[in-house]
Design a protein that fits this description.
- The protein is of the alpha/beta class.
- It has one domain: TIM Barrel (Alpha-Beta Barrel).
- 34% of the residues lie in helices and 16% in strands.
- The protein is built from eleven helices and ten strands.
- It has a ten-stranded mixed beta sheet with strand order 1-2-3-4-5-6-7-8-10-9, sandwiched between helices.
- A hairpin with a 3-residue loop joins strand 1 and strand 2 (21-23).
- Helix 9 (195-208) packs across helix 10.
- It is globular, with a radius of gyration of 19 Å.
């Protein structure tokens, strides 16, 4: 990463870890600390928003999605990837540095601030495609060793790498942001025409993962809120535990290529979710209007906080609990 790109990311609030990883305080971590407002993952899945470490192990990506907040700079070029334990320790240290300025803010509880310095949940979803990091399973294992649950968000276009993660994260998301190849090419701007087919293969992998699974649809007005049947077919390939319909947010680099009118209202997201429910058999179960997100489940029940983590091959087998 050249000095210019590095400086830009730092000005945007990223804390860089080595040459290919980064941390950034989530908007909802700040909201929970300052105003007591939790993120939708706390509402739906039971995590503690202020104890969530938002990070990426790999700043590069094989897509250039128009709705992404990531600055489309050069992908990392490294001789050897950073070892997973060192990466995790660096990410936690960076989180502590970034959160340090919130101590002493009048509305921030000191106990909650101390908890924010000791993350117990890691969202591997900040920027880039995390399955490009070749030691992803080691990172998950290092987090588990520290009692940190992991939510991985992948674009699903590297199915072999997704299938090889060992041990598995607490929860695996695959982003399905287009109902068909035409919309995928226009909105997600894949680096190769082959990525549409690889995404479909990735949904098959998601189907077989022995952990909690989610499909997320990032909805962008004027681009991909069409062809609900196409989305329903992809949901049927994966049969995830949960489906999220989530409205695009006008932030980051996306503001240079999209307009604020591309943000759907919660009413539009809800309408899409209801149509998807009709085509899949899933049930509209919950929503969080301030995040413009609606959750669909198979049984109409929220996931809760005590479902045992099902270890994949080589996992600990010790019944760690997922949020």
């Amino acid at each position: 990463m050249d000095a210019g790109h590095r400086g830009l990311l730092e000005r945007q609030g990223y804390g860089l870890v080595g040459e290919h990883s980064a941390v950034k305080l989530c908007h909802w971590l700040r909201q929970k600390l300052v105003k007591g407002r939790p993120c939708y993952k706390e509402t739906f899945y039971g995590i503690s928003s202020h104890r969530c470490l938002q990070m990426t192990p790999w700043l590069g990506c094989n897509q250039g999605c128009l709705f992404c907040w990531r600055y489309p700079g050069d992908d990392p070029v490294v001789d050897e990837p950073m070892e997973a334990v060192a990466l995790l320790e660096g990410a936690i240290d960076t989180q502590r540095r970034l959160v340090s300025g919130y101590r002493g803010v009048e509305t921030v509880d000191d106990g909650m601030w101390h908890e924010a310095r000791d993350p117990d949940q890691m969202a591997i979803s900040l920027a880039g495609e995390p399955t490009m990091y070749p030691l992803l399973g080691d990172l998950v294992a290092a987090a588990r060793e520290r009692g940190i649950t992991t939510f991985l968000v992948s674009n699903g276009t590297l199915p072999d790498r997704l299938a090889a993660i060992d041990p598995l994260p607490t929860q695996v998301y695959v982003s399905v942001d287009a109902p068909n190849r035409e919309v995928f090419s226009r909105l997600c701007r894949p680096s190769s025409d082959a990525l549409w087919g690889r995404l479909q293969d990735g949904l098959g992998v998601l189907h077989d993962l022995d952990t909690r699974t989610v499909i997320r649809h990032t909805l962008v007005n004027g681009y991909n809120m069409v062809d609900v049947d196409g989305y329903a077919r992809q949901v049927s390939l994966a049969e995830p535990d949960y489906v999220e319909a989530k409205g695009y947010v006008f932030v980051g680099h996306s503001r240079q290529v999209l307009s604020i009118d591309c943000m759907p209202s919660i009413d539009q997201v809800r309408e899409f979710a209801e149509a998807l429910a009709g085509g899949t058999g899933y049930v509209v179960t919950a929503e969080k209007a301030d995040s413009r997100v609606v959750l669909l489940t198979k049984d109409g029940k929220l996931p809760g906080v005590s479902r045992p983590l099902r270890d994949g091959p080589g996992g600990s087998g010790e019944g760690a609990e997922s949020p």
